[in-house]
Design goal:
The protein has about 625 residues and is of the alpha+beta class. The protein has 3 domains: about 25-170, Creatine Amidinohydrolase, Chain A, domain 1 (3-Layer(aba) Sandwich); about 185-325, 3-Layer(aba) Sandwich (Creatine Amidinohydrolase, Chain A, domain 1); about 330-465 and about 525-545 and about 570-615, Creatine Amidinohydrolase (Alpha-Beta Complex), CATH 3.90.230.10. Helix content is about 35%, strand content about 20%. The strands form 8 sheets. A 6-stranded mixed sheet has the order 4-3-2-1-5-6, sandwiched between helices. Helix 14 crosses helix 15 (about 365-380).
Length: about 625
């Protein structure tokens, strides 16, 4: 990267990943509900369950699988709907409370908080005995079906498994399924050979009493086989399935058009590649042989589990054995993601300088800002994709936690407002996710107070020391306490796991109010992102990624303690900090963090940006 480039890059739309045309609108419900209901009538269904999930339980899903959006207009990454012949309900969590009302027409849908009442609970309370409620067994997991069956038993209605999804029947211009090539993910990035991973996971499967493992989650398949793909935007996943045998041999089921000449040689003789359409046949053969098959009931489609049972397999329920080792990054993965964050930090810092010097006059809008940041990232020539669509949110749009700017919602960054930018990049060596909030013009006292309280919570979590076995749930209140002290809070988790050139949201680790049994372990990457949102006015979020460090002895202590190593590198706005609200310890943390940002990034910045960064990271 040039060190004398002080101007913003010229973003060309054809070179950018993110687009800004609306993906849906309020007309979707009125246009598409009658089409779905017509197909429901043909199938003699009184209702139909519409999850956001695709057949792979992805968070971000291919265009063909956006069935919930097609039938309602809601484009968020989590939710569900229940469509009856005479009413329809859309379920979302606190992240989407405002968005769902903007996108889904209340003339056709009622709104429910999915954390208060789940679709199966709603069914049990509201559906009359004898009603026929349809579901797609490829979109409902084995565990999800158990919940639906419990609701059916309680409510007295019938569950009907459909052979063809009525939305797919009604959606005449449904996009094609993706078919991107599968690419090797080299040992320099993965840190461990696929063959070694397969042996370790196979041993866990054998220890659980199973002869084989059915893997249906693309993230686990990508990790286990050290491959990446392009079937899902923002996450480098190849869609497919896999069966791992207890001796480490495996079969990878993917569409033939995804397989290049080099893939078979790269995977080696221990991996057989077959068409994804062969999965059912393979499951039936496992059953015919009396094979004990391990499945994760929270991930595997109910259709596959039914096929295994009916063909004679013994089902062994096992939490995806790839999930925990995937989350605990090895030395190569941690080293790679730190390099990726340095590269990303340069781009974000240059962008923040651009905002401070070019976007203070009220003539820059959210889309221009998002394009400019993406262009800065692209200048490294190592950006494979964004890790999610940038949340470029000015003024009141910042109060929408998962706001997605479009040509319809786009507004300018006006004087006296806050601008929130939550963004990230996908690089071969790591995945980034960072949020910064900055003032446009002069911020109000209220804005500064709220920002400082969010910062205090961020620092408290960043500095946490905690014993082995501690869960993210136990740490969550550290980030909320400064807000709680004045009667404030936020309605999203404080931290989510992050993959290594994989999903920007990755389990099983998290930091949230919701109870969790997963302890934080060394090598786990997790976000630290408390926030505050004032509906109709502004939003604040400060997000860095951190890595859980190995336990270390505490002088005078009796137990070794885990801690976090912050790996995100970009300045935190001092303009919004009320210094009198910070303790000496908090000021020391902020000064030390800013010193590290300055020392790491300055050699890679132009003189003008470096001078600006020196001021923005000055000691307070």
């Amino acid at each position: 990267m040039s060190t004398n480039n002080t101007s913003a890059p010229r973003p060309q739309d054809s070179q950018l990943f993110q687009t800004y045309e609306p993906v849906s609108d309020k007309s979707y419900a009125g246009k598409h509900l009658p089409l779905l209901r017509s197909k429901m009538t043909e199938l003699k269904l009184d209702g139909f369950h519409v999850p956001h999930d695709d057949e792979y339980q992805n968070e971000y899903i291919p265009a063909y699988a956006e069935r919930l959006m097609w039938v309602s207009g809601f484009s968020g990454s989590a939710g569900a709907a229940m469509v009856m012949q005479d009413r329809a309900i859309v379920f979302v969590d606190g992240r989407y409370t405002l968005q769902v009302r903007q996108q889904v027409d209340s003339m056709f849908y009622e709104y429910e908080d999915i954390t208060a009442v789940t679709p199966d609970e709603w069914l049990a309370k509201n559906i009359k005995s004898g009603a026929r409620i349809g579901y797609d067994p490829m979109l409902v997991t084995s565990a999800g079906l158990i919940r639906l069956e419990a609701a059916s038993s309680k409510g007295g209605f019938s569950l009907v498994s459909v052979d063809e999804n009525p939305i797919d029947m009604a959606w005449t211009d449904q996009p094609d399924r993706p078919s991107a090539k599968i690419n090797p993910h080299g040992i320099e990035f993965s840190g461990k050979l696929s063959a070694d991973k397969r042996v370790e996971i196979a041993a866990a499967v054998s220890d659980a009493g199973a002869d084989a493992l059915l893997l249906t989650a693309p993230t686990s398949i990508a990790w286990l086989f050290n491959v990446r793909g392009g079937d899902v935007s923002r996450t480098p996943l190849p869609l497919g399935r896999a069966i791992l045998e207890s001796d480490g041999r495996a079969t990878l089921f993917v569409a033939a058009e995804k397989v290049g000449n080099e893939l078979s040689g790269y995977l080696g003789s221990g991996v057989d590649i077959r068409a994804e359409s062969d999965v059912m046949d393979a499951l039936e053969k496992l059953g015919a042989a009396g094979t004990a098959v391990a499945i994760d009931p929270a991930l595997v489609p109910a259709s596959y589990v039914q096929a295994l049972r009916e063909s004679g397999s013994k089902i062994v329920e096992l939490v995806d054995p790839c999930a925990l080792p995937r989350a605990c990054k090895n030395e190569a993965e941690v080293s790679g993601t730190k390099i990726a964050h340095e590269r990303d930090g340069v781009a974000v810092t240059r962008f923040l300088h651009w905002i401070a010097t070019k976007a203070q006059g009220g003539d820059i809008d959210e889309i221009t800002a998002a394009k400019t940041l993406e262009a800065f990232r692209s200048e490294s020539d190592q950006l494979a994709d964004l890790s999610f669509d940038s949340i470029s949110a000015a003024g009141p749009n910042g109060a929408i936690c998962h706001y997605k700017v479009s040509t319809e919602s786009n507004i300018t960054l006006d004087q006296g407002s806050l601008y929130l930018i939550d963004s990230g990049g996908q690089y071969s060596d790591g995945t980034t996710d960072i949020t910064r909030t900055v003032a446009i013009g002069q911020p109000s006292d209220e804005m500064c107070d709220r920002f400082t309280r969010v910062l205090k919570g961020h620092i408290a979590l960043a500095m946490a020391l905690f014993p082995v076995g501690t869960t993210g749930h136990q740490l969550d209140s550290l980030a909320r306490k400064p807000l709680w002290e004045v009667g404030l809070d936020y309605d999203h988790g404080t931290g989510h796991g992050v993959g290594s050139f994989l999903g920007v949201h990755e389990g099983p680790q998290r930091i949230a109010k919701a109870p969790s049994t997963q302890a934080l372990k060394p090598g786990m990457i997790v976000s630290n992102e408390p926030g505050f949102y004032k509906a109709g006015e502004f939003g604040i979020r400060i997000e860095n990624l951190v890595v859980v460090k190995e336990p270390a002895a505490i002088v005078g202590g009796e137990r070794k303690m885990l801690s976090f190593d912050t790996i995100t590198l970009a300045p935190i706005s001092l303009q919004l900090v009320v210094q009198s609200l910070l303790s000496e310890v908090e000021r020391d943390w902020l000064n030390e963090y800013h010193e590290r940002v300055r020392n790491t990034l300055t050699p890679m910045l132009s003189e003008e940006v470096a001078e600006w960064l020196a001021h923005e990271t000055r000691s307070i």
